[in-house]
UniProtKB/TrEMBL annotation, chain A:
The keyword DNA-binding does not apply. It is found in: Cytoplasm; Nucleus. Its main location: cytoplasm. Keywords: Cytoplasm, Nucleus, Repeat. GO terms for cellular component: cytoplasm; GID complex; nucleus. GO terms for biological process: proteasome-mediated ubiquitin-dependent protein catabolic process. This is Armadillo repeat-containing protein. The keyword DNA damage does not apply. The gene is Contig10692.g11441.
UniProtKB/TrEMBL annotation, chain B:
SMART domains: CRA, CTLH, LisH. It comes from the Eukaryota. InterPro entries: CRA_dom (IPR013144), CTLH/CRA (IPR024964), CTLH_C (IPR006595), LisH (IPR006594), Ubq-SigPath_Reg (IPR050618). Residues 78-134 form the CTLH domain. This is Glucose-induced degradation protein 8 homolog.
């Protein structure tokens, strides 16, 4: 091969430049060896420096073609390309500038944009505010361009802004749908697949585009046919589109059954697809989307149990780890994990989390796999944030199990230690921190002693309540509440010491109603058990607390009213002095009013519990008649009448009868 | 029972089975076929598909005028395909490669096997033209280095395949007259038909790369016909009927 001298390429006259570039192109296409020779001479850098200065479209075409060559069978060039990512982005301007140039030039520009996106050199967000979608819409006139543009759109959909632009550009969507409905027998399999993939991404979480596909003539029928396509990618992508549409507009039952059946069939074949991570990720994504609706999730969990999907997914995590240990991986690394492998694992972990969310059988299968638990612990410890977030999410699901299963998890490794560590140290990762907090919250019921003995943890929980992240605030409150549930006195002392009654009272008026609820529930737990517990609460900011409690009885949020009633119930179950406090007119009259006016059975039961607690014989013997006398003085006739009226309600009848018995 | 009487018994049973089979005469079969109505529109589309895929541009345009079936073709692309096919069938491989690269440089960059076939054919043409020195240099520079040495992108198995194919091709150097009798494996290399075969393959790859289906529907349906005939004439419920064995022929019993 006669080597071309490339050092003077930039400064050569146009005709010589063009000839050299053409020869270079012919030498390099298909030849790894020649690509390497010129790469080592700095050809790529020279070509990129010429892109921004060259005006002749013929020469530009050759330059872009030669750069494009390096995307094929030459992975060494990828690192070099990263330095020129902005040049790749700017190449889209050629579409407008040279739109009347040779068709091959436009095709080449589209190819290089596609290749730069597919290889990850540029990201979708790099094309935001660049008018690219509008430009692409003007080039949908040949099949090859439609195919290229569909591939480009598939990746651009990762950007919300660009997806919005696609949504507004109906022309592009129409052209793509036309290929699927009218031209499906004329276009190549690859072109068809690219169009289906583009629609799958575009319609994901997008009601407008889903609606457009639904109403486009024959689109849904053709996609339903593709559920039986011999190519698995087509099957899965078509399922995805139908699943996306079904999210907003219920498809006919038959079509729903068909795409769900396809997904379950695909998930049955997961071990067969082991090498095709993209396909597995797609199947998992659809399963996760289906799992968001409880009815679908129940069905999915049942079928997943029948086809051993849980076992197959856990095996994939374990074999995926093995593969990455054995093979040399040229992909980029984050910490010690290859990037592509990590996003694959994250997807599987999240799918397992979705499936095991509220199904003990699924959880049990995962927990009983010791090897998987070991791997899960490693993933939680991993330096890859995406992976340890997904692993923590799965742990949150698993930690909803019964105590015995939870014990198995904790016995298998230092999960508690790691989760606590992440919770304490992940201030810069609020999503991860709140997920760890939720996991700790689920463990708090059964492992109170271990968790409450960690002063750092308690301090952190209290600090998080004062933070900015609402999700984390709520999760922290939940955790504290759980720590206090039926716990012993020592734990109560420790928690209150960190939280302080002053702060707790403030939380009763927090702007977030969920936090208000949790604060009330914390009080319920603090008041639980003995008179001493009640006394402890009432003696520490008791007046302020009772004043706040009174206002809570008038709250619009029924849950808050209910918890307030139970707090009163708890106080009313104490000694005479405590009963008197609970029986105070401001509370009693209000409860009576609530009983008369409410339709909610739960609220009625709350009031009845309060009354029953009041009427219970308090400790110390002789004061029973004093309470009843007091009740009589306070228009008990009214109360009895109200009670007898509500006795017809089957949900509260038992409670009323108990209250009446006590009052009599 | 002896083997002979076994065979006789089986044959008797088969005769009995054969006699129970439904049989159709040629006339009966043709009558049944008349009942199946295939719209002319479908037939015309099949023919149009053939003309477009094979690159008969003028034929397609005329057919479009006659039948009203739209020739869904990129005229520019057809012209390129016709030219590339012409160059390949004439043995002008280098020019054909240049045209392919101009049309879509990714075709050969992504398809190592096809690129090898083209380069190999170029070598064969040099050997046929008795340009031995040039052929040897060409083989060394274009085939040996590029396709045999395994690289990060070229797997060992592919590299081994290319090596064995190149070795096979190099044995052509031993024969003075490539038009004379050659071993079968070399005959297909040296034969002019190899150019046609390669041209057909390149045509298909171009169509696929440019977003068009390369499937000849007529070919597909022919295969389906053969399969259906085979299914009908075997098994428990087999029937006897006239078959179409040659696409250009008639029904035969």
């Amino acid at each position: 091969m006669a080597e071309i001298v490339i050092d003077t390429l930039k400064t050569d006259p146009s005709d010589i430049k063009l000839e050299k570039l053409k020869t270079l192109k012919f030498q390099m296409i298909g030849s790894h060896e020649n690509k390497e020779i010129y790469f080592n001479q700095g050809l790529v850098e020279i070509l990129f420096s010429m892109v921004s200065t060259e005006l002749d479209d013929k020469i530009l075409k050759e330059i872009i073609t030669s750069i494009n060559c390096y995307f094929f069978n030459f992975p060494q060039a990828q690192e070099c390309f990263k330095f020129f990512s902005s040049t790749f982005v700017q190449m889209h301007f050629f579409l407008t500038t040279y739109k009347d140039s040779s068709p091959q030039f436009i095709d080449m520009v589209l190819r290089i944009i596609r290749n730069s996106l597919v290889s990850g050199i540029v990201k979708a967000k790099d094309f935001e505010n660049q008018n690219l979608i509008l430009e692409l819409g003007t080039f949908l006139n040949t099949k090859v361009r439609i195919s290229l543009i569909a591939q480009i759109l598939t990746i651009l959909c990762q950007s919300k802004d660009l997806k919005l632009e696609i949504e507004q550009n109906r022309q592009i969507l129409e052209k793509i749908l036309e290929q699927i409905t009218k031209n499906q027998y004329i276009i190549s399999d690859e072109c068809l697949a690219n169009c289906v993939c583009a629609l799958a991404e575009a319609s994901d979480k997008n009601q407008q585009i889903s609606s457009f596909i639904l109403t486009y003539p024959q689109a849904v029928d053709e996609l339903t046919k593709h559920l039986r396509h011999p190519d698995n990618v087509m099957k899965v992508k078509s399922s995805r589109i139908l699943s996306n549409i079904n999210r907003y507009y219920k498809l006919p039952t038959l079509q729903q059954q068909q795409f769900k059946w396809v997904i379950m069939q695909m998930s049955q074949l997961l071990p067969v697809f082991q090498d095709d991570q993209a396909l597995i990720k797609e199947i998992c994504k659809i399963m996760r989307d289906l799992a968001k609706k409880s009815k679908e999730r129940k069905h999915l969990q049942k079928v997943a149990g029948d086809i051993l999907a849980i076992e197959k997914l856990t095996d994939l995590i374990l074999t995926c780890k093995k593969a990455s240990e054995e093979a040399f991986d040229v992909d980029a690394f984050i910490g010690d994990q290859p990037v592509l492998q990590s996003s694959f694992k994250s997807m599987i972990l999240r799918t397992l989390a979705a499936l095991s969310r509220d199904e003990e059988k699924c959880r049990k299968k995962i927990i009983e796999n010791k090897k998987f638990l070991d791997e899960l612990l490693q993933l939680i410890k991993s330096a890859n944030k995406d992976q340890n977030y997904a692993a923590c999410k799965l742990f949150v699901s698993l930690s909803r199990s019964d105590k015995m299963l939870k014990q198995i998890i904790l016995d298998s490794g230092e999960f508690l230690k790691e989760l606590t560590k992440f919770f304490l140290e992940s201030d810069s990762e609020p999503k991860l921190q709140s997920t760890c907090c939720k996991a700790l919250c689920n463990l708090a019921f059964d492992f109170q002693k271990q968790l409450s003995s960690d002063a750092l943890l308690l301090r952190k929980l209290v600090l998080c309540i004062d933070g900015q992240n609402e999700e984390l605030r709520v999760a922290s409150c939940y955790t504290l509440k759980n720590l206090l549930f039926r716990c012993n006195k020592d734990i109560k002392i420790i928690v209150v010491k960190e939280l302080t009654s002053r702060r707790l009272i403030q939380l009763m008026s927090d702007s977030n109603s969920k936090i208000q609820e949790q604060a009330l529930m914390i009080y319920r737990n603090l008041l639980h058990q003995t008179e001493q517990d009640i006394q402890q609460v009432l003696s520490d900011g008791g007046d302020e607390f009772l004043a706040k409690l009174e206002t809570k009885l008038d709250d619009k949020n029924q849950a808050i009213v209910l918890h307030s009633l139970y707090i009163l119930s708890s106080i009313a179950s104490g000694n005479q002095k405590q009963k008197k406090i609970a029986m105070d007119e401001r509370f009693f009259n209000r409860c009576l009013q609530i009983l008369k006016s409410t339709d909610s059975s739960q609220i009625k039961i709350g009031v009845l519990n309060y009354i029953t607690s009041l009427a219970f014989k308090e400790s110390g013997g002789s004061s029973e008649s004093k309470i009843k006398k007091y009740l009589t003085d306070m228009k008990i006739g009214d109360l009895l009448e109200s009670l007898k009226e509500k006795e017809r309600d089957p949900e509260v009848r038992g409670y009323i009868q108990r209250a009446l018995k006590k009052l009599n | 029972m002896s083997a002979q009487s076994n065979q006789a018994a089986t044959s008797h049973l088969q005769d009995q089975d054969a006699s129970k089979r439904t049989k159709y005469t040629l006339e009966q079969w043709e009558d049944r076929m008349q009942d199946i109505v295939i719209s002319k529109d479908i037939i015309n589309k099949l023919v149009m598909n053939y003309l477009i895929v094979e690159g008969y541009k003028q034929g397609a345009l005329k057919f479009e005028k006659e039948t009203g079936i739209k020739a869904e073709m990129d005229e520019d692309l057809i012209d390129h395909r016709i030219e590339i096919r012409r160059l390949l069938e004439k043995g002008q491989i280098e020019e054909a490669i240049s045209k392919i690269d101009t049309l879509n440089p990714e075709i050969l960059d992504q398809n190592v096997e096809l690129y090898f076939e083209l380069k190999r054919q170029q070598l064969v043409e040099l050997i046929k033209a008795k340009k031995i020195d040039e052929a040897l240099v060409f083989a060394q520079a274009n085939l040996s280095q590029s396709f045999i040495k395994p690289t990060q992108s070229l797997q060992d198995s592919k590299s081994a395949y290319f090596k064995s194919e190149l070795e096979k091709t190099m044995t052509l150097f031993m024969y003075e007259d490539l038009n004379g009798p050659l071993p079968a494996s070399l005959q297909e290399l040296a034969d002019v038909k190899s150019r046609q075969k390669l041209a057909s393959r390149v045509n298909q790859e171009i169509l696929k790369a440019m977003g068009y289906s390369a499937e000849l529907k007529l070919g597909f349906y022919w295969q389906m016909l053969q399969y259906s005939q085979n299914q009908l004439s075997t098994g428990e419920n087999a029937i006897e009927f006239p078959k179409l064995k040659d696409p250009m022929g008639d029904l035969e019993m």
